[in-house]
Specification:
Length: 285
């Protein structure tokens, strides 16, 4: 058990480093040189760096200290320890990449997209290992725990709007705010795909007199659980059990094959499931 925990801690640490350097390289190479705000506390740090030439990594660390204290009171020790480690690594990575990576001056749309994609990738790697980079990430995670339908990426996108507006004032250019919005949208989209995309699926409703055979075949072939819901036909008044089943996207065709074999006249509804939590999918919490 101890060895397993050590391996997990080392694995987490490695991914924090990888995510931090991907995120920091995006800020250093694409975002800051082209006067685009990365949003959040990093956005504030880059603006202060622009105004006063203070290393953005140091500013980011100082801004996060009070937030980490609040986070400790809200989330407890383990989460804040992980987040503190990730925040220190990101602050260090920003300082290092600012020195070793040259700025890339390209078309601002390209800079916004590539920078946003890389930032979203880096942040996702950190979030997937149970930490955040502090700042608005902690607030977003708090809101996401209370309101599951508000994804982390979307909440961060909303909070970053104020920083983007501030960037337009500091840079004296409304276009900077527009490019920043493009970058933040790319970041939030990538984060949603990384954090929730792997758990997307389909919710399938099936009505058939051969529900027992269909249930057995789905359970045997796909190793998916099924639920029978009591239902009654509105026209016939007959009791007709409704089969409810959650599957991965690539498993929908297998369900079609089962129905084609057992009951070609089955009534079926396939709906999108943005996130599926439970056995066989994503673990809760």
């Amino acid at each position: 058990m101890i060895l397993k925990n050590v391996r997990k801690t080392v694995f987490d640490f490695v991914w924090y480093i990888v995510g931090a350097f991907i995120y920091s390289s995006a800020v250093t190479m694409f975002i800051t040189p082209n006067e685009i705000s990365p949003g959040g506390f990093t956005g504030i740090a880059t603006l202060l760096n622009y105004l006063f030439s203070v290393p953005s990594g140091i500013i980011l660390l100082l801004l996060n200290i009070p937030v980490l204290i609040i986070g400790f009171l809200k989330f407890g020790g383990i989460f804040i320890i992980k987040t503190s480690i990730a925040t220190i690594i990101v602050s260090f990575a920003l300082t290092v990449t600012d020195v070793i990576f040259p700025p890339v001056y390209i078309d601002k749309i390209l800079a916004s997209l590539f920078g946003g994609i890389l930032m979203g990738l880096g942040l996702s790697l950190i979030l997937l290992r149970g930490a955040t980079t502090g700042g608005v990430d902690i607030l977003a995670k708090l809101i996401n725990r209370r309101f599951r339908h508000l994804t982390v990426g979307r909440v961060i996108f909303i909070m970053d709007a104020a920083v983007v507006a501030l960037a337009a004032i500091v840079y004296g250019n409304i276009q900077s705010a527009l490019y920043s919005s493009v970058s933040l949208y790319a970041t939030s989209t990538i984060m949603d795909k990384m954090l929730y995309g792997g758990d997307r699926g389909k919710l399938i409703y099936i009505v058939s007199p051969f529900y027992k055979e269909i249930c057995k075949e789905i359970t045997t072939t796909l190793s998916r659980g099924v639920t029978l819901v009591s239902a009654k036909g509105g026209y016939t008044g007959e009791d007709r059990p409704l089969i409810l089943c959650s599957v991965r996207l690539h498993e929908v065709s297998a369900v079609y094959s089962i129905l084609d074999k057992i009951d070609k006249k089955a009534f079926i509804i396939v709906a999108d499931a943005g996130e599926i939590i439970g056995e066989g999918f994503k673990a809760f919490g």
